[in-house]
Amino acid sequence: MAQTHHEPFYRERRLPPYVFAEVNRLKAAYRAEGRDVIDFGMGNPDLPPAPHIIAKLAEVAGDPRAHRYSASAGVPSLRKALSRYYERRFNVSVNPDTEVCVTLGSKEGLANLAQAITAPGDVILAPDPSYPIHMFGFIIAGAAVRPVAFESPESFLRAADHACRHSIPSPGALVLNFPSNPTAQVVDLDFYEEAVKLAKARDLILISDLAYSEIYFDGGPPPSILEVPGARDVAVEFTSMSKTYSMPGWRMGFAAGSSRLIDALKRVKSYLDYGAFTPIQIAAVAALDGPQDSVEAARQTYRSRRDVLVESFARAGFTIPKPPATMFAWAPIPEQFAELGSVEFSKQLLEKTGVAVAPGLGFGERGDGHVRLALVENEQRIRQAARALKGYFG
To answer: The domain containing residue 148 runs over which residues?
Structure first.
């Protein structure tokens, strides 16, 4: 269709205004004025990667041959390192050649998998609230997304089954994300067993986003969907180096699972990219295979920040449920401000206290009664934020 000069393009039209943009604009304006913003808005880890990972990056970057095109699906040594991780952590064997693909962070992997498996008009089920790419990766690819309310693991699967029976056309895929961003909800292996049963009964593809697998506080380590027998017939799972190893800017993630889905992802990627910079991939091998004490240290840091946040904010009059996992707290907007909605509440909080949070509406319309706080400020700054809030809530 002919495009006039001022109309947004088709894919742009399918994307609503980025909800976080308003708060981000305010943050930038305040910083430009020299105001101090205590920023819980973006899940942007502030911890550095372990020294041995950075050393490996520098070492490989010194090799003149390391600067050529890399491999789109990931260098073989990195795919093998991910297989060893799955073996160690989940007792699951994935074939590094046919069941693993390296991605540029899990966000790119999810978006390109959506491109690979989606026909225009397909229906996809995604949790509401959920991380934006879970819905918008598919919307950009031309699908219609049917949000599924998440109140509890059982009700979520019931609602997904209901959607399968009552959507025309019937849904082609269901997105899962546990531990969840933004809600920090965790599930056990029974949940994944039920999800795999549902997928096989309803001919669904399951897409599991396991980005927070190593940031857990209460209860044991979160399971992988691939631990369920037969899951790899229907499921692909994304993991990421960003949070586990504090490497968000490195853009390094993985997809593992169904060889049919991995193959589709690799084919699309082979047209779009030449893989991550080789020194980053080799440094990622060093991260996965090397000492894991930095992972434990990060977990402890996030745990103590969580405890300080929950305790100091409660004293300031802002009650936040304790997240069992992830680097996020999902906080109901306090009663007296509930009618503002999450965007207005976030803007007022920023204006009056200098504390930035992410409005829950950005994660789906059912998120509007909440805000998300990322544990990316140190304990002293968290206490400082609580003191600022006390004045506002008082």
So the answer is: 65-289
